[in-house]
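Title: Comparing notes on inverse folding

I've been comparing how different people in this forum approach sequence design from structure. To keep things fair, I'm posting one structure and asking everyone to reply with a full sequence. Here's the target:
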């Protein structure tokens, strides 16, 4: 259960410096690193947690190795973001697209099944937006980060914010 004080002090020191290093990297990498996650953000966050745990607990991984591994993942995340902003093709390759789950009061059950979303979840999203009648909803969109956006019926008949949503009829734009 307890080997020696050296291991305890090493964990405290390495943990402190690793924590400071991660805070600095998160501040340098910008707000997007901490925004709502997409699949790449999730992977990087889990990997950073794993690296941090390994750095803290495994004697054969130095603090410098752990920090370099975290820097590499952070840089890869920044490169992916940078390239996807500048290349539509790359963005389509690495990023998911928002998906239309409900349109003008009608559930799209085939899409919901594919996206593994239940009718109850869609109805819950509508209720959480203070809407009682499903007929008052123009659309419910499953966003790329897994959240639901509920769009109230458009007064103008146009819904330009839905232009990039998979399954939205383009003739209404």
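Reply #1:
Here's my take.
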């Amino acid at each position: 259960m307890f080997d020696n004080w050296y291991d305890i002090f090493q964990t405290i020191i390495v943990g402190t410096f690793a924590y400071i290093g991660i805070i600095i990297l998160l501040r340098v990498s910008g707000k997007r690193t901490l925004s709502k996650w997409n699949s790449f953000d999730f992977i990087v966050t889990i990997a950073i947690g794993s690296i941090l745990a390994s750095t803290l607990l495994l004697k054969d991984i130095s603090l410098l190795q752990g920090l370099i591994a975290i820097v590499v993942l952070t840089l890869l995340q920044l490169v992916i973001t940078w390239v996807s902003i500048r290349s539509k093709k790359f963005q389509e390759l690495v990023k998911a697209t928002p998906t239309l789950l409900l349109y003008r009061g009608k559930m799209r059950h085939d899409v919901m099944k594919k996206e593994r979303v239940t009718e109850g979840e869609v109805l819950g999203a509508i209720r959480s937006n203070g809407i009682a009648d499903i007929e008052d909803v123009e659309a419910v969109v499953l966003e790329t980060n897994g959240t639901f956006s509920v769009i109230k019926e458009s007064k103008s008949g146009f819904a330009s914010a839905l232009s990039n949503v998979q399954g939205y009829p383009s003739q209404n734009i």
